[in-house]
Specification:
This protein is mostly helical and 259 residues long. The chain is built from 14 helices and no strands. The chain is globular and about 60 Å long.
């Protein structure tokens, strides 16, 4: 139970409090430039930078919206915008913290079990978030300290679902693909595209498929070398829930297709 709570607390910290710190940092950068989000995204140099990145249709749609908002951007898109479109505003401290938080989410995504042995990742993530908040203003930093302490003291944190874990994996693959522009990494990019597709289209994959039978076929064809525990599958009553569990198993354990 304690290991599970360490994981869920770190997950909530990174996805909720971490993303809010990056939204507020973006607002600060926009204020420093004296422009709105819409004006910033329409600047020729910014548009040119974003066009060179491997963005996905839903990300492009958010950025091209006639009235774009920071609330519509998830943590992955906020990371892309901050690291790539504010060369005159971002300092090395903020950049290091944003990249550090991305690394912490990456560590969470690679946990086969939703468990952590201790609160080290929570503490390290907290320090990175507070480094960002200090560069914004004193009031926001105090609010972040309060939010982090409340989460730390909370006896029971909401248990994240397999869907939450799927989403953080999807976000990591999306960031890696956006950053990968080299034609020398075709095999690596294909692996990321497959993993991204598996985590993106869970609902569509689960339609009309008997997941238990599909699992048997994957094992028979030696596409997966290790079968998920039967008990875990039996605890998932819906076809979509079982598909989430299978996809988590495939992206974390590796398969013939993606390893």
């Amino acid at each position: 139970m304690e290991k599970s709570q360490h994981f869920h607390r770190a997950m909530e910290l990174n996805l909720s409090i971490g993303s809010e710190s990056m939204r507020e940092l973006t607002r600060k950068y926009l204020k420093d430039k004296g422009v709105t989000l819409k004006e910033h995204l329409q600047e020729p140099t910014v548009k040119q930078i974003l066009e060179k990145l491997r963005l996905f249709p839903d990300q492009k749609q958010i950025l091209a919206d006639p009235d774009p908002t920071l609330s519509s951007m998830d943590v992955s898109l906020l990371t892309i915008v901050l690291l790539n479109t504010f060369p005159g505003q971002i300092n090395q401290g903020d950049k290091k913290s944003i990249e550090g938080l991305k690394d912490k989410r990456n560590q969470l995504s690679h946990k086969v079990k939703a468990e952590l042995n201790d609160d080290k990742l929570f503490k390290e993530s907290s320090q990175l978030i507070l480094t960002i908040s200090k560069s914004i203003d004193r009031t926001f930093n105090q609010n972040m300290v309060k939010s982090i302490n409340e989460l730390r003291r909370r006896e029971l944190v909401r248990t994240c679902s397999n869907l939450d874990r799927i989403q953080i994996n999807n976000e990591i693959y999306m960031l890696k693909l956006a950053e990968s522009c080299s034609t020398d990494q075709v095999d690596r990019d294909m692996e990321l595209m497959i993993k991204f597709g598996l985590t993106k289209w869970i609902r569509q994959l689960s339609r009309g498929v008997d997941v238990a039978e599909f699992l048997k076929i994957l094992n028979t064809q030696s596409i997966i070398s290790e079968i998920p525990k039967k008990r875990d599958f039996e605890q998932e009553y819906s076809n979509e829930g079982q598909m989430r569990l299978l996809v988590l198993h495939m992206v974390n354990h590796g398969t013939k297709m993606i390893s």
